[in-house]
Amino acid sequence: MIAVTGPGGFVGRAVMAELAARGLRARVLARDPGRLKLHLNTEIVAGDLADKSALASLCDGADAVIHIAGAIMAVNRDGFFAVNGQGAANVAVAAVGAKVRRFVHVSSLAAREPDLSHYAASKRAGEHLVARAAGGMNWVMIRPPAVYGPGDKATLPLFVQLTRRYALVPGRGQGRISLLHVADLARALVDAALADAPSGTIHEMDDGKSGGYGWDELCAIAGAAEGRCVQPIFVPRAALALPALLADWIASLRGVPFMLSQSKLGELYHPDWVVQGPALPGFSPEFGFARGFAQTLAAYRDQGLLPPRRGAATSRPNSDQETKLP
Fold it and tell me: Of 162, 243, 278, 316, which residue is least crowded by CB atoms under 10 Å?
């Protein structure tokens, strides 16, 4: 029995599909159970990360917990910390109380740089709080970099830009990032839940591209898939300062957060989002970005989220294409 928080999110849906593919039983925490489309062998516990009774029910009898739920947007700093900090600690406390064998905490590569943003600071706080609450429980933490794949609305704007002749990039020319396909992350999380070791460790993981990707490389991969030259145009931070300020002002008035914020600019313009390890033992990614980009792009177009384009990528790029791209 694997207990899962955040089953309806982008990563959570992939983890649920992986559990179903392996024939594993699951129990999930859901704020709105009626909105979930779940597989067989899945139990639902209604509640959220602040509901200690629901968390106790979630963890009761579970062999492992995969804690995925988190806030990527919030109106203010307190909103991030309530979910990514105290919420994560609440799940760990419930897991300890239920004598769960294994706890997998999904953090973020942003936790490595807590001074950059409220989100990054809250993810680092969550790591500390989970480690403290876990005590002697067997636990492991995973710090994914930028995660993408079919069905992800957060990375859709990036894919939109990478299908254009001139890609507007909110970053710096020298910046480098690591990437990870959601299917590889889901497989790694389930593997980690079923394993006994390592324990008490934090792992950064990516798609196997040493040194990550530069924007020129990403545009070259996108251009090869699209059959055109894609040129990155770097947007200065100052150009987004006013829109971010306005977004924060509107969010404070309406109580509805936006992805763009003044705090988020710190993450967008940080030059080094390359994983440093240690890698999760036994993890071997299946998707490089060339293959993953083509598959994700095809899915966006199948869903009508991107217009069809002559020479667009297919969901099955050949192996030669994969190996020849940067």
Answer: 316
Closest CA to 49 of 91, 93, 105: 91
Residue 70 and residue 84: Cα distance in Å, rounded?
A: 5
Say if pTM beats, i.e. exceeds, 0.85.
yes
In the chain, domain spans? 2-146+181-204
Burial class (CB in 10 A: 0-12, 13-18, 19+), 243: middle
In terms of CATH architecture, what is 2-146+181-204? 3-Layer(aba) Sandwich (3.40)
Mean pLDDT of the chain: 91
- Tokens encoding 51: 């509901």
**Per-residue pLDDT reduced to its tens digit, 133-185:** 999 999 999 999 999 999 898 899 999 999 999 999 988 788 999 999 999 99
Q: Rounded to whole angstroms, how far apart are CA atoms 202 and 205? A: 10
